[in-house]
Structures are given as C-alpha cells and as structure tokens.
Amino acid sequence: VVCPECHQTVLSKVDYSSGLLTYLFCGGLFFCGFVLGCCLIPFCVDRLKDAKHTCPTCKTALGVYKRL
Ligand SMILES: [Zn+2]
Fold first, then answer.
1. Cα–Cα distance between 30 and 28 in angstroms, integer?
2. Is residue 42 packed enough to be buried (19+ CB in 10 Å), middle (13-18) or exposed (0-12)?
3. What positions does the domain LITAF occupy (predicted)?
4. Separation of alpha carbons 18 and 43, rounded Å
5. pTM value?
6. How far is the CA of 63 from the centre of ligand 1 (A)?
C-alpha cells in the first residue's frame, strides 16, 4: 500500500488485537460448557482478532480490519 503520510510504498504492518468477536467467541465457549482454560483459546487465535495495519516507516495507522 502507499502510505498517506510518508508516500512510500510499504508493506503494511499488521497488529492483531482482541476484538469484539474474540470476546463473543469467548463468551460462547463459556456458556456452552466451561472447560478449564478453554475460554482463553480465542485470545490466541489471530484469525478472530481485529487486524490493525500500520505503516512500518512512520507508524501511521492505515486502517483497521474488523471481523464484525
Ligand atoms: Zn508512512
């Protein structure tokens, strides 16, 4: 992508954070039968998390991809 701040073509850096779906998934597991430690699994699953793209050069947020 081309960064709007430094106008360089950069490969956006993706950070994952625990988003809403992560918590919903966690809650779903919790209510479907609490198995020890099971509700912590979603926090380790990047695919369920929000992806925040940032420019590696100037740290500008390029966008946040949310699952919901
Ligand atoms: Zn930049």
1. 5
2. buried
3. 1-67
4. 6
5. 0.45
6. 12
Task: State which H helix or E strand residue 54 sits in.
Answer: strand 50-54
pLDDT digits (tens, 9 = 90+) for 4-61: 888 888 887 887 777 677 677 777 766 666 555 555 566 556 666 788 888 888 988 8
Report the separation in Å between the CA atom of 1 and the middle of ligand 1, taken as the mean of its atom positions.
Answer: 10
Looking up tokens 């850096």 gives: 13
State both tokens at 62.
Answer: 């390029």
Nearest to 2 by CA among 64, 50, 67, 53: 53
Distance (Å) from CA 57 to ligand 1 centroid: 5
